[in-house]
Design a protein that fits this description.
The complex is a heterodimer of chains A (about 650) and B (about 280). By secondary structure, chain A is an all-alpha fold. Chain A is about 60% helix and about 0% strand. Chain A folds into three domains: about 40-270, Up-down Bundle (Cytochrome C Oxidase, Chain A); about 325-555, Cytochrome C Oxidase, Chain A; about 560-638, no CATH class. Chain B has helices at about 1-20, 35-65, 85-105, 105-110, 250-260, 260-275; strands at about 120-130, 130-135, 170-175, 175-180, 185-190, 195-200, 205-210, 215-220, 225-230, 245-250. Classes of the chains: A mainly alpha (about 650), B alpha+beta (about 280). At the A-B interface, helix 5, helix 10, helix 11, helix 12 and helix 13 of A face helix 1, helix 2, helix 3, helix 4 and strand 7 of B.
Chain lengths: ~650, ~280
């Protein structure tokens, strides 16, 4: 590290030349060091992305299986009996297998997709390049964080099949509320013995990996920025990865601690989360003195910041991409940075809104309710500024731009219903219904995924040296956008009618007739069917993306160094970037990240590395003073 | 492409609003005293939500239509933002959101900050996998002692009632919640294995029943009939059919029923089920 600091701080004129010996690691030559146990942040980033791509496929298949069960609860499906044995007798998904799917879908998506791809994937690859560093601050730690994540995923997948006699993985939901998680095995709940153990262990492993990653991100961003890259000149993506890393650093340890306590309750007879006086109907359960609500506090103290861990990088990518393709500077850059930090900070004070009906003090509920609705303010600032960025632009509708605009639309659609769910009063009916599912899937699920799609289409050329097909990208975009709205808007209506979450079926056959278990849900029949059809179509359409991704990797059109005519440092270097990112020439930064359509400049974009003199000369008027505004000062805070 | 996206956003916004406005999928009619206040607050919130949603989507649609690159040579507007607009916008949203948040406290406060009225009927509720047990004190208005050691599903003693306690002689235990119309009822919610949640949609009321805690709640049903009780917190593989019913009875029927000893209580409840079919 000392070397790196010397280079950045004490070599005023060596900005384009490498001091000898600053390389911590030369380019590896063997296959294993190059592609498997690599310490190159770019390789690690791609490893994270591939891990997330695998995970999202599993999670997606699980969601389709859930829709099948909900729509045709007694139908057998080919192959399931072989795969799950007793979990799907005769191919019919059992209630416990359904709950296992619920649990695993949630866990895989939240941890191994939403946390992994935007931060571990894109963040790893592009944060060092965008700040002009040649790698992460701690490359070995970076490698470890990926491989620890990988082990976490293996353990989680093992949980599905580890229950032995009963087949299914853990059935307590991704939130793992005790006592169901802690003593479910004493109550003969399927999947809550070894399935639960592996599930908690996997999450604990993931917490460790995220901590390693977060430390690395924060250090890299603070210490390894290149000359001229002041904080307020950083791309908003860097701000989002930075904020996310801080959230991860502060929230994952809490989950880690909670997970360890839960493991002890489950296996060692402790009672952190299990109170006394419980019964299995025959005997008293030998635990006493714990509190189930304590788990909920610890879990959501992590769980709410986790929502922002999933969505903030998407916000960063969206701001970055909107500006690029609107050919306009980001509207209110400073406000965007502050809003992001405000969201992150407030995110630590609102966890109680998951617990209004948990039995905690109703006065606490009131405080959490007001704090929760205040988080809408910085979110609204972001939305306003995205619109402001588009306003007056010259919008180029590339595939990444389409997904970024989709992100804005979905973020609004999903986020705005927080206004309903943030009110303790309204949770009297809405809590734990499909309204909640609709809300968080739109905002932290689909919007975040749209952010990732946007990022993938945008950065793919830099990562693999080839363009993804624009035509197939658009064919992927349209049904996906229409599909996700068709899936999640009707779920709000189901929730208003009162449909509860985590029910494995709503109808059953009694004496040959299909009957509703709950009559108040009768009116939702057409919605259930509509959503299922939409979900299947949308899931199938994703094949186009997978195909485009892997086909383009090998056969796509060759990409130039700066195919989108963008301004930030990743577009300065070669495609794909060399091992040390800038080929030994450390860039010097002269201006903010989003200098598009600068009046008088030769092109409609000015690279961060373009000196003022170059601009002035191009214009032929011989002085750079006219471009004072083009230094990235957004005119705020004066 | 910009125009197509704009059209999509307009159509999507219209259809989404229609889903809410059509009234096809809405709450069941309220049967509780606080229900209308709940419905008003929900309506107010959903109107604010709907207006904000539509405004943002339509603005987005307009922007992608109006500012699409049409191939000309002129550049985008070079602007880094507008502080005054930013502050104005922030102030407006902050005002609206905080107002909604404060208004939203009323229903909650009315139910949860006030103790149950003195004339409330009291019912102890012990939830278990996958069944509701409602414990009535009988004519002496005293609950018999219960203890987890005495719980025995085999002998149908789900709540561990101490039969030797004098106060338990006239107690009744049933999977049906019996209430009197226009009389407040206080439930003392408990769970004996895992967390469950008591929920009756037309009542606009839901509350977790947590092992180790006794959570007192109250509400006033105001419409005679029979309504479904659902469990709203994941409690295990049969969670989806942890179902029971709440009867809201006229005063005379309620008095007659609650005076009955355990055996006849169940028979009478079965008769009342026939008299009051579930209708929404």
């Amino acid at each position: 590290m000392a070397d790196a600091e010397v280079r950045h701080e004490d070599q005023p004129d060596a900005g384009h030349e490498h001091a000898p010996g600053v390389h911590h690691h030369g380019p590896p030559t063997g296959f294993i060091r190059k592609y498997i146990f690599s310490i190159d942040h770019k390789v690690i980033g791609i490893q994270y992305l591939l891990l997330a791509l695998f995970s999202v496929f599993i999670g997606l298949v699980m969601s389709v299986l859930m829709r099948l069960k909900l729509t045709w609860p007694e139908q057998g499906w080919p192959g399931l009996a072989t795969l799950f044995g007793e979990g799907a007798p005769g191919g019919v998904i059992s209630p416990e297998l359904y709950l296992s799917l619920v649990t695993m879908h949630g866990t895989i998506m939240v941890f191994f997709v939403l946390t992994t791809a935007p931060q571990g994937g894109f963040g790893n690859y592009f944060l060092p390049i965008q700040v002009g560093a040649e790698d992460m601050a701690f490359p070995v730690l970076n490698m470890l964080s990926f491989w620890v994540t990988f082990i976490g995923l293996l353990v989680l997948l093992a949980a599905i099949f580890a229950a032995g006699s009963t087949v299914v993985g853990p059935t307590g939901g991704w939130t793992g509320y005790p006592p169901l998680s802690a003593i479910g095995h004493l109550l003969n709940v399927p999947g809550q013995d070894w399935g639960l153990n592996l599930w908690v262990t996997s999450i604990a492993i993931f917490c460790v990996a995220s901590l390693l990653g977060a430390l690395n991100f924060i250090t890299t961003l603070l210490n390894l920025r290149t000359r001229g890259m002041s904080l307020m000149r950083m791309p908003l993506t860097c701000w989002s990865w930075f904020t996310t890393a801080i959230l991860a650093l502060l929230s994952f340890p809490v989950l880690l601690a909670a997970g360890i306590l839960l493991l002890l309750d489950h296996n060692a007879g402790t009672s952190f989360f299990v109170p006394g006086g419980l019964s299995n109907g025959t005997t008293v359960i030998p635990h006493q003195g714990g509190s189930p609500i304590l788990w909920q506090h610890l879990f959501w103290f992590f769980g709410h910041p986790e929502v922002y861990i999933a969505i903030l990088p998407g916000m960063g990518a969206t701001s970055h991409i909107l500006s690029t393709f609107a050919r306009k500077p980001v509207f209110g850059y400073r406000a965007m940075v502050f809003a992001m930090f405000a969201i992150g900070l407030l995110g630590f004070f609102v966890w109680g809104h998951h617990m209004f009906l948990s039995g905690m003090s109703p006065y606490t509920g009131m405080a959490f309710s007001v704090l929760t609705l205040s988080i809408g303010v910085p979110s609204a600032i972001k939305t306003f500024n995205w619109l402001g960025t588009l306003w007056g632009g010259r919008i180029r509708f590339t595939t990444p731009m389409l997904f970024a605009i989709g992100f804005v639309s979905l973020f609004v659609a999903g986020g705005i219903t927080g206004l309903v769910l943030g009110q303790s009063s309204l949770d009297l009916s809405m809590h734990d219904t499909y309204f909640v599912l609709a809300h968080f899937h739109l905002v932290m699920g689909v919007a975040a995924i749209f952010g990732m799609f946007a990022g993938t289409y945008f950065w793919f050329p830099k990562m693999f040296g080839r363009m993804m097909s624009e035509r197939w990208g658009k064919i992927h975009f349209w049904p996906t956008l229409i599909g996700v709205y068709c899936i999640f808007i009707p779920m709000h209506s189901m929730g208003i009618v009162g449909m509860p979450r985590r029910y494995s079926q709503f109808t059953e056959t009694v004496g040959g007739n299909r009957e509703h278990i709950y009559k108040f849900l009768t009116s939702t029949d057409p919605l259930v069917m509509f959503v299922t059809v939409a979900a299947i179509v949308t899931a199938v359409v994703q094949v186009i993306f997978f195909w485009n991704f892997f086909y383009s990797m090998f056969k796509g059109e060759k990409a130039s160094d700066n195919p989108w005519e963008a301004t930030t440092l990743e577009w300065v270097t070669a495609t794909p970037p060399p091992h040390d990112n800038f080929g030994g020439k450390v860039p010097t930064v002269y201006r903010g990240a989003y200098e598009y359509s600068v009046p008088g400049a030769p092109e409609d974009y000015v690279m961060q590395t373009t000196p003022d003199e170059a601009l002035a000369n191009a214009d032929g008027n011989g002085h750079g003073g006219g471009y004072g505004k083009a230094n990235g000062d957004d005119g705020h805070g004066r | 492409m910009g125009r197509a996206l704009a059209v999509f956003l307009f159509v999507m916004t219209g259809l989404s609003l229609w889903m809410f406005l059509s009234g096809k999928w809405w709450f069941p009619q309220s049967i509780s005293e606080h229900g209308p206040a709940y419905d008003r607050q929900f309506l107010l919130t959903i109107v604010v939500v709907g207006v904000a949603f539509a405004a943002a989507q339509l603005a987005l649609g307009y922007a992608v239509w109006r500012f699409r690159d049409t191939g000309g040579r002129e550049r985008a507007v070079y602007s880094h933002g507008n502080n005054r607009m930013e502050m104005l916008w922030t102030a407006i949203t902050a005002f609206i959101f905080i107002t909604v948040a404060i208004l939203g406290q009323r229903v909650w406060a009315g139910l949860h900050f006030e103790p149950a009225p003195a004339d409330s009927a009291r019912v102890r509720v012990l939830a278990q996998q996958f069944q509701w047990n409602f414990h009535y004190p009988g004519s002496d208005a005293k609950f018999g002692q219960t203890s987890p050691e005495k719980i025995s599903d085999e002998s149908l003693n789900y709540i561990g009632l101490d039969e030797t306690d004098a106060a338990s002689k006239d107690d009744a235990v049933s999977s049906t919640l019996v209430t009197q119309v226009n009389r407040p009822v206080e439930l003392i919610l408990m769970a004996r294995d895992v967390t469950h949640a008591f929920w009756v949609p037309p009542l606009r009321f839901k509350q977790d029943a947590v092992p180790g805690l006794e959570i007192p709640v109250h509400f006033k049903p105001n419409k005679v009939g029979r309504y479904e009780i659902a469990c709203a917190e994941l409690c295990g593989q049969q969670h989806y059919k942890m179902k029971s019913f709440m009867l809201v009875l006229p005063a005379d029927e309620y008095a007659a029923l609650t005076a009955l000893p355990q055996a006849q209580f169940q028979t009478r409840v079965a008769e009342l089920y026939k008299k009051y079919p579930v209708i929404y």
